[in-house]
Amino acid sequence: MEKDIITSIGIEECMKRLMKQRFKYLMAILLILAITASSGLLLRQSIRDTREKEAENILFYYREKILLQMQGTMNEANALARTAYVMEKKQIDPSDWFHTAAEPLLKREEVRLVCLFKGDVMASALPQDKFGNLVGRDLQEFSYIYTLAKVVKDLVVEGPVLLENGTGQEEVFLFLQPILMEDAYMGLVAVALDKDYVFGQMGLDELYAKGYDYELWRVEPQNGNKEVIAGSRTDTDFSQAQKTNFYLPTEWTLSIQPADGWLSSGQRLGLSLLCVLLAAFLLLMARLIYRNTVLNRTMRKTDYEDKDTGLYNRKGFTAALDGWLSDTGTDVMLFYFSIEGYTQAIRLIGPEEEAAFLKNIRPRMDDYIHSPYIAGRLDAGGYVVAVQEKMEEQQREDFAKGLSLELLMQVRIDGEKSFLMARYQYAVCRPGSGGAEEELSKLICAYYHRVDQESPIRKLTEKCRQLIEGKNDVTFDEYTDMDMMELSKTFNQYRKQVEQLAYTDPMFHVGNRPKFLRDANMLISYDKKRRFSLYCLDICSFSQYNELFSANIGDEILHEVLRRLSRPFGAYVYRINGDVFLGVSLSNEGAESFVLRLQKLFAVPIMVGSLSFPLQVRIAACLYPEHGETPGTLLDHIQSALRFAKESDQLIAIYNERLEEIIRTEADILRRMKEAIGNGTLEVWYQPIMLLEEGRYRAAEALVRLPDGKGGYFSAGQVISLAERNGIVEELGDYVLTKACAFMKEQGDRLGVQRIGINLSVQQLLLDNSAGHLLELIRSTGVDLNRITLEITESILIQSIDRASKTLEKLRQAGAHIALDDFGVGYSSLNYLSNLPVDIIKIDRSLTQQILTQPKQYKLLKTIVDMASINGLVVVAEGVETEAEQKAIAASGLQYIQGYYYARPMSDEKLMQSLQD
What we know:
This protein is α+β, with helices and mostly antiparallel strands. The chain has 5 domains: 70-258, PAS domain (Beta-Lactamase), CATH 3.30.450.20; 307-435, Alpha-Beta Plaits, CATH 3.30.70; 454-503; 506-655, 2-Layer Sandwich (Alpha-Beta Plaits); 669-916, TIM Barrel.
């Protein structure tokens, strides 16, 4: 049975080869026929072109001859017209001279009529016995050609036309010559010549004698019809004839063509014989070339081919690759494969199994590679493949990996199945960079250099590291070394546990952020049209449970939160941050309804032992694909919604157009801020501060202003908040600090400003060596440190008082002043004023606004001023807008007032103008 199958396969292969060979023969014959036909057509066209050129020359000769005869030799009317012109000038009556002048003409046999028009009236017509009755008739009573001659004022020839006389009719040619005096029409002379005489003068019969059919015709001016004047044969088609035109003044056309056609029968026969001979010659040459090709191929096959695989050997491969590079001139992808442990394995499996493996390599490559390629076997386990296809880096990697699997060798050693893998190296082979042998040598050298640098242990270590980083496409290769093979198998068995560590929260055994990204990617790739909802839940003020009780209590609360979330979300629950959770819902329930259901889940307090903990949760939601088409985009949007809920003190935030507009606005602010800082165009404004004792502006506060592109400015608080959230507040703060210090250095003395205040962010204070960095920036401008006041808000200072105090103390010791901004909001304890590293306190507007309506607030203000005086602190009141507020605050004894009552923030130019005025 197996032999029958092998036999049928062999027959099928032979039939395929035979059909392929016959197809080549057929294509060669068709090519030869095409060349022969093309050559015959070109030769035929050449003969025709030659004969047409001869015809053109003949036409030129006859056209000139006819024109010369018509306008010169046969135009007897011209001499009479000149005589009439002279007689007219002498005012001699035609009856006295015309008969005498025309008499010699009338004696000629071919002349049939001679007449004279004076103006539009025929004055004389000869012979009188035949045409005397025409005298006195008007020009319009005759043929249209008489009028035509008058109009064109030039010779008009017409014929053949019928001329009526007393005895009958005869065909003649009319020659009408107008009599002109200073280009004015005075009359005309008409002479009629016999038709046969005119034809004889043209000599058209000579054309027929030379072997040409001819046709002389003109276009009838009155109706546009074709009027044949003379022709060799009436049944001849002149559509392919050569033509020439001339005007008398009507358009005349002379057409000629060979009587036996442009190609004679003899020429056709000779051309056919020539084509047959050419075809026979080409067939003979094709046969000789084919036999020579087969012979050369046979000779090259033994020299260039590997007999075991049917692939090229090294010499054949490099020759074929050189041919590719020189013929195509395009890049070639070059791949080298080496089967590890091949030499040792074939000693154990025997020659028969090796031969079967080698014989199957070429068919495997043909099945896998779909682009034009050449392949060679360089040594026992080494192969090289060149592919004519443009590939990106990842495509080259995928191609090499796939072909290495095709070259996988399965062996059985000591009863155990093993696999020999093919390692690979690839490169781009560019024309002109070197010969094929040079490129191949460089590729093999690169392969062994990489192999030397890599060890199995190192590769296993790298793959384990990739698993830890969360990659899910890591595979552990098999090795010929038995110990390495066993280690690889062990790692493969342990792989799932490593993935579990990469995608699971170790404390609560739920998915983490990478797990959400992977699961969402799988949902989207499985069905992009399937909708799902994403919900983010944050426990409000969760840190207080850990601080007030213990971390174990906090963990128990989170465990219960996860148990409750698993009801609506199932396995799609993720912990992405301490007390922030994500959930994916595949139901079609509306987001508003689903959020309310989540809130009900946490309406009941959580019990931990005997303790009861009521939770307040903040929930954000967004939808796929409405609010994002990738997991990363969805996560960014839902975190933006949650942040918006926190900032606006809301418990629910569903991502919508308003949130999207906020996000776009924030992105626009960030972009504009980065560009303005980079370009040095970010504006720094200044609000002057009044020293009450002197009644002059002795200080100012620097404030950042970012134009919104619409003629206005973004909120300074929004700009600073975005800078803090996006990690560029240090860059922003350094910019404002440098600008303000430089302004103080250049304009401070001129404007009478003693100090300038600059706000600092807590992020600037908490950086390593922040004091040294800030002092370096200030000193780089050359300004005196004693004239710089660095302002920090009270709430930020209290939150980071230990670390911030050390930085502020270094700044104070260097000479800078420290101001506590927004005093009176939040913490505001008068008892710790003496312990803070500050020189100035700035009363917040929320306190100054209440001093007129709440006596207690005014007493508090006076107390703050007194306590500050005891501690040697300067007090500044912010946000003073009315005169009543100004008088009350001034009476409290503080030193400085800042607010719209005195001045709004303004640009540096306006500040200079205002203070100098």
